[in-house]
Specification:
Length: about 230
């Protein structure tokens, strides 16, 4: 009945008989929205919800159940579900939720594209790739760029951590302010404090003038501490 209602509203529907099929379908089809029962063979709706969010953190997921508790609803919402519906589900109510969720997703995608275009105009490095893990990183960058929080970027040497840091800076409200990078592993321990915090004239023997530290240079902008694990 729900499939008939969704297809009648113009949506393409892919069905899965159990949690394993659902997770595989997520990888194969990359859907715009997920509708999952809480109780499924070979797993449950929480496993499907987690898999969906791991693949695409912004994907709307609606969870349904005839046996749910208040605790189940709270858990589903904490795990990122858009809504938690008790069965029997009213098709008209479901269609309203689906339309609203897809419209919200469309607006989010448009905003991301606009931010990417703006970043390119600002000279930000372009990040491309369709791999789900990369798309997840791109989405995380977009969300992090909207905040002033400290961000930890982890990865092996040569994987482009500074590229991601520059992209995050270009996507943020700080884009017109300085981006300052320092390789912590390349600075001798005796000089690191001065490099980071600077010094005033006469602060120590040989301090013949005022030196700006990297923190001050990056004021209102972004400071990228490369190889910070070596501090």
């Amino acid at each position: 009945m729900l499939r008939h209602a969704l297809e009648g509203d113009g949506h393409d529907v892919v069905e899965a008989r159990d949690a394993t099929e659902a997770v595989q379908a997520l990888q194969d089809t990359q859907p715009a929205l997920v509708l999952s029962d809480l109780r499924l063979p070979q797993g449950d709706g929480f496993a499907v919800l987690r898999a969906a969010k791991e693949q695409d953190v912004e994907i709307p997921v609606i969870v349904m159940t005839a046996f749910g508790t208040f605790e189940d609803a709270v858990r589903a919402m904490k795990d990122g579900a858009l809504d938690f519906l008790a069965k029997p589900v009213d098709p008209e109510h479901l269609l309203l939720l689906v339309r609203r969720a897809l419209e919200q997703r469309r607006v989010i995608n448009e905003n991301l594209l606009l931010k990417e275009e703006l970043a390119v105009r600002r000279g930000a490095p372009q990040l491309v790739g369709e791999d789900p893990s990369l798309r997840k990183v791109f989405s995380s960058l977009q969300r992090a760029a909207a905040t002033d929080t400290t961000v930890l970027i982890e990865g092996e040497s040569g994987t482009g951590k500074e590229l991601f840091a520059r992209s995050l800076h270009a996507l943020s409200e700080r884009a017109t302010m300085p981006f300052v990078a320092i390789n912590c592993a390349a600075i001798p321990e005796t000089l690191l404090e001065t490099e980071l915090f600077g010094h005033e004239k006469g602060a120590f023997t040989g301090a013949v003038g005022r030196k700006l530290g990297k923190f001050e240079m990056a004021h209102r902008g972004t400071l990228f501490l490369d190889e910070i694990g070596d501090l």
